[in-house]
Write a structure and sequence with these properties.
84% helix, mainly alpha
Length: 64
């Protein structure tokens, strides 16, 4: 039961992180078309943190 919950939390966190990364890419390419490309480091950092939290949940709930 807890292993399935860990997998669900992991994939949910991964989906949220992917949406954030896609949003950051959209912002970058919009800025690139305007002549001011800015890499949104804060957004990418948040995506990595969310993904790592999901990965940690999967690890802890799998009992490894």
């Amino acid at each position: 039961m807890s292993e399935q919950l860990g997998q669900t939390l992991y994939w949910s966190a991964t989906a949220v992180a992917v949406v954030i990364v896609l949003w950051a890419a959209l912002i970058f390419f919009y800025g690139l078309s305007q002549g001011q490309p800015i890499v949104p480091i804060a957004g990418l950092s948040c995506a990595v943190i969310i993904w790592l939290v999901g990965r940690g949940c999967r690890y802890l709930l799998a009992g490894r």
